[in-house]
Amino acid sequence: MNITRKGIESALENYRLGRLDNFSVPNQGLLNKVVFLKTTRGRYALKIALVNENTLDYVLGLLDQIRMKTTPRLISTIDDKLYFLYSGHKAFIYRYIPGNIPKRLSNRMTDGIGRFLAEYHKRSCHFPKNSGREEILGLSQYSIKEAIAQARRGRGKKGREALRHIETAIGKYRLPDNLPSGPIHVDVKPDNSLFIGDKLQGVVDFDNAYHGPLILDLAVAMSWYGIANGRVDPAKIKSLYSAYSKKRELIYSEKKSLFDAFHLAVLRNALRALAFLAQGRLPQKWVYSYLDDYLEAERNFVATREEFIKYLEN
């Protein structure tokens, strides 16, 4: 999509945010478009939904309900709506969140992510269940078979080898149907987190949010923050888990299922990435990097279920 000053000025006519001073288009977001704006009244972010327009109402409704300091704070249009059309696509504006994507991770950072995630789960627990959106980490056996069939259409030795491991391993892990559930972000990772120093300023990109088991959301964050260079970092995982459980205590079935959720978080992300690669929706470089770092770490993670939870709890 071609982002022009004229187009942004036209978009701002939907708001009372002053005149446009300047804008920039960061190199981030694999599927949707983000534009940073500076107007005579402040700094904002413009998000243009290119692939999830049908589910944007769910995302905007969720953000409007939780209203956390560390999530995008939506700006209503002059006719009191949460979105408008930009070149035929749904788009919205939220207050700019200062900070940087971390280049290195400290335990204080993972502690902040754990506290954020617990607070988010507590605030969003009463949000309506029916989202009507694709579950990016869907847990049904049908969704697994469908993603495997899509991934098989891809080319490349690395992808085929990864898919063989996923097909063998993914059936070993299951989550019970009765786990506590709610709106899950399902993509809390460093690239979607903004820090000043070690202090968390915000978590963005709720594009994949849907109603699912809370423990999966925690496990996804633990995998993104607890894996680096093809290895699991137990200290980072424990830091995030401890901070989360201090604000929202896990029940027994969640603790028992966390080991499976951790493996599933990596396996299903890898499977979905391979399926998207075969469809041309993700670049090969990004997908192969994920396989080298995260799937390799999952493949070589030898802790048992009992060892895993015992380490986190003690």
Q: How many distinct folded domains?
A: 2
Distance between the termini: 50 Å
What is the number of helical segments per DSSP (H or I, 4+ residues)? 10
Order of helices and strands: HEEEHEEEHHHEEEEHEEHHHH
The structure class reads alpha+beta
Largest sheet: 6 strands, antiparallel
Mind telling me the CATH class of the largest domain?
Alpha Beta
Low confidence ranges: none
Pick out its properties:
314 residues, single chain, 10 helices, 12 strands, 2 domains, Phosphorylase Kinase, domain 1, 6-stranded antiparallel β-sheet, Aminoglycoside 3'-phosphotransferase, Chain: A, domain 2, 44% helix, two-stranded antiparallel ribbon, alpha+beta
Provide a short characterization of the protein structure.
The protein is an alpha+beta fold and 314 residues long. The chain has helices at 5-12, 56-66, 107-123, 141-151, 157-169, 214-226, 234-247, 252-278, 284-299, 305-313, and strands at residues 20-24, 33-39, 42-48, 74-75, 84-86, 89-95, 181-184, 193-196, 199-203, 210-213, 227-228, 231-232.
